[in-house]
Amino acid sequence: MLTFYCDHQSAHAPLRELNNGEWMDFAESPARLASIHASIGMGEAPKDHGMAPIEAVHDSEYLAFLKSAHDEWLAAGRDGDAIGYAFPVRGRRKLSLDRIDAKLGAFGFDAASPISAGTWEAAYWSAQSAVSALESVADGQARQAFALCRPPGHHAGRDYFGGYCYMNNAAIVARAACNRGLGPVAILDVDYHHGNGTQDIFYEDADVFFASIHADPAGDYPYFWGHADERGQGEGEGTTSNQPLPRGTTWTGYEAALDRALEAIGGFGARFLVVSYGADTFEKDPISHFRLTTPDMERIGARIAQARLASVVVMEGGYRIDALGHNVAAFLSGFEL
Predict the structure, then answer these.
(1) Model's pTM, two decimal places?
(2) What is the Cα–Cα distance from 135 to 317, expressed in whole angstroms?
């Protein structure tokens, strides 16, 4: 399978995050890339498609913030990584904010997603890898392609970051696919955590169907999105399908949810599929609580492949470094037609 990746994606390297009330080493580290490369190789360098496909999804003011945030942090007399600590409880009215601390809160939703000196560079090229994967499928070079995105993207909304995510790679691919006339387009998110940013971006959009299988947000991050009664609204009513599952879910329960999600995607009439693949459903992942095995990853890929849709897979989570590459390789092996 064609794979796209750029060395710039390792530039994002925060030292630590605030998690469960304690400082810990940043889980979404560049070491994830080394594990995946060891199993599937380096892939092809993406082309630079510029800002247009990113701006088709993300707010211009947010992108300007993201690009300058770390420089503003240093200019304020700080060192290290920029981390927010004050977040609006509900609603964000338009304000002119000068202090970097206020901007971090306005554009972010957690304290676990630092912005380092290389965050913009890495996120930009992660998005370019995703767009290049789409181009390879749209231009007929391949039926399927894999974007080794890092940092991941599915928690990033139109104008906010969080959950280790800064630009929403799956949404960027989906919007670009629609613009190229490849629709109807569906996104299938199989990360352990709900893709709240992706859902938000397309919640009122009738052109993109979003299906997610994830840990029940009643007890797992991101908590405030991903409940079963969230189905879209306005023109997007009925184009969101959430299937929350309990901790400890094994292949038996997961397979049934996957079948339901694929049935919904088929009912939508999708012709193009974006897969947000997270290997954090693995039984030994340090921050997740499903009980899927490496052979189950291949089963997930094979089941999705049965839909026989032109597809782009974008990498999301997965934090058990010594097993990550094997899990990604297993999924892609099952997925490849």
Answers:
(1) 0.97
(2) 23
The span from the CA of 291 to the CA of 38, in Å, is: 24
10 Å Cβ neighbour count for 61?
A: 13
Compute the average pLDDT of residues 144-152. 98
The span from the CA of 167 to the CA of 123, in Å, is: 6
- For the question of residue 58 being annotated catalytic, the response is no
Q: Which of 8, 58, 154, 155 is catalytic?
A: 155
If phi over 0 gives left and psi between -120 and 50 gives alpha, with beta otherwise, what is residue 232? left
Spatial contact of 165 and 197, defined as CB atoms under 8 Å apart? yes
- Is residue 122 within 8 A of residue 5, CB to CB? The reply is no
68, two tokens: 């300058």
Report how far residue 280's alpha carbon sits from residue 250's, in angstroms, rounded to the nearest whole number: 13
Residue type, 181: G
d(CA 157, CA 163): 11
Neighbours of 134 (CB within 10 A): 28
DSSP conformational letter for 327: H
How many Cα atoms are found within 13 Å in the side-chain-facing hemisphere of 68?
14
Q: How confident is the model at residue 91 (pLDDT cuts 50, 70, 90)?
A: confident
Residue 93: the pLDDT is 78
Question: Where do the domains of the chain lie, and which CATH numbers do they carry?
Answer: 2-335 (3.40.800.20)
CB atoms within 10 A of CB 123: 31
